[in-house]
Every structure is written in structure tokens, then in C-alpha cells.
Design a protein that fits this description.
heterodimer; A: about 550 residues; alpha/beta; Rossmann fold; 3 domains; six-stranded parallel β-sheet; 21 helices; B: about 160 residues; alpha+beta; Alpha-Beta Plaits; five-stranded antiparallel β-sheet; four-stranded antiparallel β-sheet; 4 helices; about 40% strand
Chain lengths: ~550, ~160
């Protein structure tokens, strides 16, 4: 029996196990929306801006580990997805972005709502496709999902002209993927793993430096085994938060620009740095020649192009992080404890804890209170980008993978709210909270409608200093207090806005009101809730490694 | 340092733009690029000459390999490289210098592929230095037009 391309697309998505897609209709996807009209197995969530669709798919993928799917029409619909696709690309998030395109006979003629989506998304996707023949559709969808989730995950875009949706084909879905030019290397080289085991055995002051790769490879258990078996302290990147429990004795917290002093000192002083699923980002390394200057470096990563990209590596191991850690564990001898090193680290931790002055309503206090409240409950913390993000990364304590969702590499303001929506769809029973700034919450505030219409009980905690706080902080510390265009004192009333959208909302101005307000937010189960915390305006994020400095040269307060 | 990189890719639309875009985006300069289909019509071979140190070369090789359509990437070391360039040079001629030009062409084992009253087109194939050499000698007669193809290269001897 023949079916239309639109129906074939939906059938293909079902074969891939897709349960939900985030999208926004338009001219060139009309035939697909017509097929969605009677579709029962795939839930379509109508967002209010395509960027919200991409971030929601991204948040869904991060919360569940599945491939997120977003959908937009051609031209402006597709270009509105671009920021969200780039965001997923930088953080290696599996996503398939489907866009409508003008009919094949109108391609390349500057037709109405035509944009070269393959060209535009080339540098921000792992791979992309334009379907020009209807019979290629099932194979391309199969390949797109395979590419998105295998190896180093990432977004894949599929551009589909309108006449492909309306054309007919005899549908059969391929069982297997055959891409001769794409064979991700999953198993680490045994000789390299042996070298790493030897280096670990000989090391006196080792540190594990752990990134988002451990989360995407589901390797937290193996990581913990390695750390505990060999007595190795663990620092995580922002993307790696949750990969190792913050409550563990060996946890150093985050490293880098806003990392803990103990993590930055440990990395600077260590004799062996074991990088696992991390990519030596400039926010982590600071001044590269003075990054881990005494250390031999082991780098375990699925992507060979990451090895040696930013820093010299002594023992590279290319492979799936989980598989490599398993094999490494087998090759490691009896327990080491590195007593002197651990003691030194304990001393740093005691001497330089994360701290803040408790005068007035402080953002860190709000986060600590929420952390205490939700300690024993399944909670997913999402953030926007800026100070809100860094305070949350520092002061919320993460115990499990996929409980922290934040825009790392791209640093996308406006990511948090739609990502929280996506996360709540993926994990309906978890508490999902978005810590936001007053600047970034306004960048995709239309997504409150998506949350309200779907009765999502997400919590939005605006740490409201009426500034673009992180930029203001840099202006204060580096640009002689020139607060150029960062003062948002003329913000609209966020409580009224939230209420107008149909959220529960309130404002909190005193520290003593914080606990009750947070408890109140947890009682709201049938709609989103926004609390506008009016925080100390010029509170800064510390520690802070000024750009160009070594990471042990922090401004501590 | 100059490197000659061979990139074996799926012969699909858009592959050239993926490769060229990658060079631009990662800040590597392409000095020359030649593409053509291989013995297998579903596979193309690109020969790219690019400037950079060893680290640049390693990074660009890995990034090229990461492209989904790339089958194989390898650097051809200069000492193992059998390489050729092709150029067509249209030289201004008159009654007096026609003989001299023809002599140069013979010495270089180049060929004259078009003759007109006031010009001749010379075809030269060879290593870069040979092509540069004839261009240098012909320049004083006046080069009206010239086109050079990108370098192509294979590794000498058995399999690569």
C-alpha cells in the first residue's frame, strides 16, 4: 500500500521510538500537520516560537537520554531553530530537527519562505540532509537518528520539501543502518588503557576531570568505582555536574572560571590529570600553558578530534567512556588511597569553601534553600545563562546524572524555560525548576504559554537583580564600573506577566520569606509557577578567574 | 609548512562545501584543491594543499575525518608523493618571438594547444617547480590569460 511522505515520516519516527515532538506549523509543513491531525501515537507540543521547540527537544533529550525531536516550517521557521540547534551541537545533545522546505521545483529560486537550511546548519549539525527523492525518506530518517545518538551525539537536521510530504511511496523501514563512511570507534585501545592504568598506579597526586561525556555515555557508576577504588579526587565541568555525587568525600566540585578553589588548586598541583568525556574548554583551562603544569594527562574521549585540540595529551584513549572505564578498572590493581594528597585536598576544601555574605536576599541562599527542600526528591534543575547559572552550578548539590540541564558551550540566554518544559515532558514525575535571571527569562518568555496549556508544574525562580548580572560583573571588575547597557531597572512586572500567562506567581523580597515561598511552589501541581526573587543587585559570582589568567589565580571574593 | 592531504569522500552533493566550509571555519587556509571521481563512481578524491604546522595538520585531518561523508583522510609526505599540476598559459606572440617561445615550450616538454595570430596557448604538466619555471620564463612575453588546476597527488609505490 502506498502512503504519503508525511505519513511515512510519522511512521519512521514511530519506528525510532519517538513519542513527542515539539513544533510550530507553517506553509511548507501543512501536509505534515494534516497527517499529525489524526496521529495518535506521537504527541505534538505546540510551542510559541521555534527556538522554544529546539530548546524543549534539547531539554527533553538531556533529561531522558533519548533523541529530542523538533519541527518547523521553511525559511523563518527553520532559522528560528538555528540557535537551538547550535546549542545542542556545542553540548553534544542528540536531536533531530525536521524542517519543511519549498517544493523541489522551486528550490534555489528565492521562493517565498525559502532559506538554504542545509547550508545554514552545516557548521552547527553533526550532519544534515535535504530529501530530494521520496524513496530516500525512510533511510534518511533512520540514518539521522543513528548519527544523532551514536558516537559523540549531536543534532542532525532533515530538510523536507513540501512535494516530498505530499508524494506517495511504498513504505518500508530499513532494519539496519549502512553508512560506510561513519563508524564510530567505541572500544579503547588496550595498549593505551594499560598505559593509563600504569600511570594511575604510579601517580601520587591524581585528579579525575570529568565532563558531559560521562553523562551521555551513562558512565557515572564506573566513574565512581574508579575514583573510590584508587582514591582519586574528582572535579567536574559545568556539563559534568551530576556525573559524580557532590556529597562524595572525593568530590571537588566544578573547576575553571567559576570553579571551587579546591578544584582549581588540585588541578594546578596534580601530577596526573585524567580527563574523562571532557574537552578542555577555555572556561575550564584558563591560561593554557599554566593549566595542570605538572601533570601527565590522560584523555579519554569518544571523539578523536578532541584529543590534542586544546592541550597536549600524554595518553590519549579514544572510545566510549563507559567501555574504557570498565576496561581500565579491570587493569587496576589493589586500592590506592593517596592519603597525603587527599589530606591536602581536604585542607583546601576547609580553607576555601564556597561562600557568600548573608546580608539581604542573596541568590545563593535561595538555591541552598531549594536544595535542602528537594534533597530527597527527584528534582531536575535547569538554568538560564549568566550569574543565575553559575550560582546554581555552585550552590545546588547534584547527586545524579541528568538532574542538571544548562546551556554549556553556546551559553544561550533563553534556554532555560523551554528546556524546563522539555524536561518536564520527559520526566513528568520529577520536580523541574528553572533558575533564571531577569534578563534571560525574557528571551523566551512566550514559552510560559506552552507550559500553561500543558499544565506543566515547572517552577521558575527568577534571581532578579534588574541587571544583565554577569555582564555587569565583568564591567565592574574589568571595565571600571562602566555599566554600559546592562541596567534593566525598567523591567516589566514579571509577576504580572506570569499571571497574565496563567501561572501562579509571587514576589519575594526578604530572606525570611524564601523557605515558605519555595514550599508554596512545590504545592502547585497543575500549572507553572514563577517566583520573582528580588536579590541584592550587585552580588557577584566568586571565585572568578579573570580571562587570560591561570585557574589558580582566582578572585575569591 | 605545506601539506598535501588526500580526502576520500562519498560522491554526494554538498560534500565539497562541507569540506571547504570546515577549512574556513577552523581557520585553515586552502592553497589549492582538486576534486574528481575515483575508479569507483560513488567515491570522490580530493587533493588539498594547505599550510600549517604538524598540530594544525593533525587537527584538520581529524576534523575532516569527523565529517560523516568522509571515508578516509591521509597526509602524503613530500618525499613519498608523486604529484602533478596542470596549467594553461596564453602568451602574447609576434613574428619575432614566436620561435623563442616554441623553444621554451620544447625544453619544458610542454605543448602548444592553440595558436592564433597574436597568441599561443601552452599546456604544461609537472611538479609545481616546473610549472612555476615556465611561467617565469613566459612572463616577459606577456601572459594574456592563465589557468592553473589544483595539485593532484598519489603516494609512490604500493598501497597507501
Amino acid at each position: 500500500m502506498e502512503i504519503t511522505g508525511a505519513e511515512a515520516l510519522l511512521e519512521s519516527l514511530k519506528k525510532e521510538g519517538v513519542e513527542i515532538i515539539f513544533g510550530y506549523p507553517g506553509g511548507q509543513v501543512l501536509p505534515l500537520y494534516d497527517a499529525l491531525y489524526s496521529e495518535k501515537d506521537i504527541k505534538h507540543i505546540l510551542v510559541r516560537h521555534e527556538q522554544g521547540a529546539a530548546h524543549a527537544a534539547d531539554g527533553y533529550a538531556r533529561a531522558t537520554g533519548k533523541v529530542g525531536v523538533c519541527l518547523a516550517t521553511s525559511g523563518p521557521g527553520a532559522t528560528n531553530l538555528v540557535t537551538g540547534i547550535a546549542n545542542a551541537y556545542m553540548d553534544s545533545i542528540p536531536m533531530v530537527a525536521i524542517t519543511g522546505q519549498v517544493p523541489t521545483m522551486l528550490l534555489g529560486r528565492d521562493s517565498f519562505q525559502e532559506a538554504d537550511v542545509v547550508g545554514i546548519t552545516m557548521p552547527i549539525t553533526k550532519h544534515n540532509f535535504l530529501i530530494k527523492k521520496i524513496e530516500d525518506l525512510p533511510r534518511i530518517v533512520k540514518e539521522a537518528f543513528y548519527i544523532a545518538k551514536s558516537g559523540r551525539p549531536g543534532p542532525v537536521s532533515i530538510d523536507i520539501p513540501k512535494d516530498i510530504f505530499t508524494g506517495k511511496l511504498k513504505f518500508s523501514y530499513p532494519e539496519k543502518v549502512e553508512i560506510p563512511s561513519y563508524k564510530p570507534n567505541l572500544k579503547g585501545h588496550p595498549k593505551q588503557i594499560s598505559l593509563a592504568a600504569k600511570a594511575i598506579a604510579q601517580s601520587k597526586k591524581p585528579v579525575l576531570y570529568v565532563g558531559g561525556g560521562v553523562i551521555s555515555a551513562e558512565a557515572s557508576a564506573e566513574l565512581k568505582q574508579l575514583a573510590e577504588k584508587c582514591g582519586i579526587p574528582v572535579t567536574v565541568t559545568m556539563m559534568g555536574l551530576g556525573a559524580f555525587p557532590d556529597s562524595n568525600k572525593l568530590a571537588l566540585g566544578m573547576l575553571g572560571m567559576h570553579g571551587t578553589a579546591s578544584a582549581n588548586y588540585a588541578v594546578t598541583d596534580c601530577d596526573l590529570l585524567i580527563a574523562v568525556g571532557a574537552r578542555f574548554d577555555d572556561r575550564v583551562t584558563g591560561h593554557i600553558p599554566r593549566f595542570a603544569p605538572h601533570a601527565q594527562i590522560i584523555h579519554i574521549d569518544i571523539d578523536p578530534a578532541e584529543i590534542g585540540k586544546n592541550v597536549r595529551v600524554d595518553i590519549p584513549i579514544v572510545g566510549n567512556v563507559r567501555s574504557v572505564l570498565k576496561e581500565l578498572l579491570e587493569k587496576l590493581g589493589p586500592k590506592e588511597n593517596h592519603k597525603d594528597w587527599i589530606e591536602q585536598i581536604e585542607e583546601w576544601k576547609r580553607k576555601y569553601p564556597l561562600s557568600y555574605k548573608k546580608d539581604g536576599l542573596k541568590p545563593q541562599f535561595v538555591i541552598e534553600e531549594f536544595c535542602a527542600l528537594t534533597r530527597d526528591r527527584e528534582t531536575i534543575i535547569v538554568t538560564e545563562v549568566g550569574q543565575n547559572q553559575m550560582w546554581t552550578a555552585q550552590f545546588y548539590k547534584f547527586e545524579k546524572p541528568r538532574t542538571w540541564i544548562s546551556s554549556g558551550g553556546l551559553g544561550t540566554m533563553g534556554f532555560g524555560l523551554p528546556a524546563a518544559n522539555g524536561a518536564q515532558f520527559g520526566r513528568p514525575d520529577a520536580i523541574v525548576a528553572d533558575f533564571a535571571g531577569d534578563g534571560s527569562i525574557q528571551m523566551n518568555i512566550q514559552e510560559l504559554t506552552t507550559a500553561v496549556n500543558n499544565r506543566l508544574p515547572i517552577k521558575i525562580f527568577v534571581l532578579d537583580n534588574s541587571y544583565l548580572g554577569m555582564v555587569r560583573q565583568w564591567q565592574e571588575l574589568i571595565y571600571q564600573h562602566h555599566y554600559s547597557h546592562t541596567d534593566l531597572a525598567n523591567n516589566p512586572d514579571l509577576v504580572k506577566i506570569a499571571e497574565a500567562y496563567g501561572c501562579a506567581a509571587k514576589r519575594v523580597e526578604k530572606p525570611e520569606e524564601v523557605r515558605a515561598a519555595l514550599e508554596w511552589s512545590l504545592t502547585i501541581k497543575d500549572r507553572p509557577c514563577l517566583i520573582d526573587f528580588v536579590i541584592a543587585r550587585e552580588e557577584n559570582v566568586f571565585p572568578f578567574v579573570p580571562p587570560g589568567q591561570a585557574i589558580n589565580e582566582m578572585i575569591l571574593d | 609548512m605545506k601539506h598535501t592531504i588526500s580526502v576520500i569522500v562519498e560522491n554526494k552533493p554538498g560534500v565539497l562545501s562541507r569540506v571547504a566550509g570546515l577549512f574556513a571555519r577552523r581557520g585553515f587556509n586552502i592553497e589549492s584543491l582538486a576534486v574528481g571521481v575515483t575508479d569507483d563512481p560513488s567515491v570522490s578524491r580530493m587533493t588539498i594543499v594547505a599550510e600549517g604546522d604538524e598540530r594544525d595538520l593533525e587537527q584538520i585531518t581529524k576534523q575532516l575525518h569527523k565529517l560523516i561523508d568522509t571515508l578516509k583522510v591521509f597526509d602524503i609526505p613530500r618525499e613519498l608523493s608523486a604529484e602533478r599540476e596542470l596549467a594553461l598559459i596564453k602568451v602574447a606572440v609576434n613574428e619575432k618571438n614566436r620561435g623563442e617561445i616554441t623553444q621554451i615550450v620544447e625544453i619544458f616538454r610542454a605543448r602548444i594547444i592553440d595558436v592564433a595570430e597574436d597568441s599561443m596557448t601552452v599546456e604544461i604538466t609537472g611538479e609545481e617547480s616546473k610549472v612555476e619555471g615556465i611561467i617565469k620564463l613566459l612572463r616577459r612575453f606577456g601572459i594574456k590569460e592563465m589557468v592553473r588546476g589544483g595539485k593532484i597527488a598519489l603516494q609512490r609505490g604500493g598501497a597507501e
